[in-house]
Amino acid sequence: MGVLKKFFKDTVIYGLATVLPRLMNFILVPLHTSKLGTTSYSDNTSFYVYAAFFNVLLTYGMETAFFRFFNKSEEKNKVFSTTFISLSVTTILFLVIVLMYNQQLAIWLNISPKYFKILVGLLVLDTLVVAPFAYLRATGRPIKFAAIKIANILIYVLLNYFFLWAIPRFNIDFPGYNKSDLVQYIFIANLVASIVTFLMLMPYFFKTKLEFSKSIFKQLLNYGWPIMVAGLAYVINENFDKWILPYLLGKDINGAYSGCYKIAMFMTIFIQAFRLGAEPFFFSHSKEIKAKETYALIMKYFVIVGSFMLVFIISYLDIFKIALVKDESYWKAISIVPIVLLANLCLGIYFNLAIWYKLTDKTIYGMYLSIVGAIITIVFNLVMIDKIGFIASAWATLAAYGIMMILSYLFGQRYYKVPYDTKRIVGYLMLAIILSIISLNTNANYYINTFLVLLFLGSTVLFEKNELKQLLKR
User: What is the distance between the alpha carbons of residues 296 and 291, in angstroms, rounded to a whole number?
Assistant: First the structure.
């Protein structure tokens, strides 16, 4: 039980570092959707689609590889140093190449040269701090990790409000302020926050003696490159819809789609908090006698919490819609939210299942599974958007993550069998889906919807009461 306590403690702290920034981003959704039209919001979305893609390329799986080899290596400082040096060198090379061809690259990406320069600055700064952040997590310093992450988002949020709300509201005389191009200030706020984060983490650049080990680098690279490919496929799964919609249906539709997509961030927050705490935990406790039983227990309660969130958000979707996306011009895409929520829950289960190929060093399978998902995403979007509109993108996301989840479970039980309580897990998922469908057909009757939420909670307590009592006693 001590092992589980440590897992939950780390997950809560890391989750705080993730949840608070994400919650602050929720504060920004009403600001952005009220100050930016759907077309400008589409530009904002496209900027971060490119950021996500290049972030994966520039880190090339080194973060996860670092965790894997840092925990099992006797030369931990050398693992950190090698990771840091390799990421720094490749990032500087990237910067040099981009500076040489920045105009051509901006045109090729169909992005404003001004936005592109900010994007490059963000990418360089965020990549250089990957190794220091990973070091904080691997050495059990979640509080410092959380403090820096929270400082980053506080700066970002405050600057957003300053540029988009305070300056127009109080007629502040800010040199060069351009009311017709407000979206640029979102990117500038992000860049300033990244600069401060970089400065806060600079002491860790000199934390250990800089040593580059070719043998360790080869191990990191061999372990990490399939994760990079899987990461690129993940970016496609997450963002291909937001990239293709402006071309097929226009920026207005993409802006509305992207704005409503933000409501599903509640599930994304939960999943990311889980991953931050779970990944180091799974690696460091893989040699424990009852490791597999612990993984199975964590999976069950992950599904319970995720399923509850699905029912809860859908039951009160109208409230979330009004609170987060105030501009009614965005609401034409609200129908995607239930589908995207379920898709993200499947993704969370997939991440949980993914421990089998990470612990057995079969990361190549993670790449294969992600590529399958990417192919489904691309084909489904290209074929179905013309036929059923933007809703096709939401269904494509669900199809991709659902199939990835099922395939990962089947392969995992073959190579690293974990005794998951499959009947209970499937049961909770089906119950959540059924209750959600009922909720969507109650015409926002909150009495009925509240009953549905309580019904799910009551069912959980009924089936898990004995285990919950034991866990609470310990």
Answer: 9
